[in-house]
Each structure stands twice: as structure tokens, then as C-alpha cells.
Amino acid sequence: MQTRNHILDDLAKVAGGALSVATGIKRETEVVLRQQFEKVLNKMDLISREDFEAVRAMAAKARNQQEELSKRVAVLETALKIKPRHKPATKKTATRRASKKSPARTTKPSNWKTKTAKSETPGIKGAKG
Fold it and tell me: Are 72 and 78 in contact (CB under 8 A)?
């Protein structure tokens, strides 16, 4: 009987030691993984949530100011009887614009130069002049 108790006691000690080693390995693995994730995130140059929220609030404030100024310009244009150049943006269209991604440009801006059949530079074959 005595030998059985010693064997069970030894097995319990070994199991307890293995459990504490496994717990230590788990903690060490978590620390190493956390450090690696932090290193990767720092390399990605991400902003913090606080910075994002601050910029978001600034953008909302700027948008509100722009809407107020657009309304004031519209009032001044009507007072001076000037035909408005464009329709002032409303909150409904502003939120719709913000929620959609801008489509890819399909037309060239008017200030882009177009290719001509003949060169206008002197000294080049087919040049005018």
C-alpha cells in the first residue's frame, strides 16, 4: 500500500509540474505573439482610434461650415440678383456622396491637350509654318 501511495504522489507531482510548465509556455507564447503583432502594426503606420475620431470630428465641422457658407452665398446671390453657378449641396446629397466611392474618371479634363495629326513645332516633319 505504501508503494502505491508513493507512485501516485510522484505521478501527481509530475502532472503538476507539467501543468505549470504548459502554463508558462502559454504565457510566454502570448507575450511573444503580442510583441510581434505590435511590431507589425507599428510598421504599417496606422493611426490610433482617438486620432481618427478627432479628424472625423474636424471633417464634420468643416462640412457644416461649408454648408452654412453655401447658404449664405445663396442668400447674397439672390439679394444681388446674381444667377447662382451651382446648386448648394444639401445634407442628403452630402451623405450620399460620402457613402459612395467616386467612380473612375471616364472623360479627360478640359485642360488636357489632345494629340493632333500634324505637329505644330517647327523643324519637325509635317510641321506647320
Answer: no
Tell me the three cell numbers of residue 102.
467616386
Could you state, in order of their start, the residue ranges of all structural domains in the chain?
1-46
Cβ atoms of 55 and 62 within 8 Å: the answer is: no
Distance CA 74, CA 108 (A): 30
The two most distant CA atoms of the chain are separated, in Å, by 119
- DSSP annotation of 44 reads T
Task: Residue count of the chain, please give it.
Answer: 129
User: How far lies 101's CA from each of 22, 31, 98, in Å?
Assistant: 50, 40, 7
pLDDT in tens, 52-110: 999 999 999 999 999 999 999 999 988 988 776 766 566 555 555 555 544 454 455 55
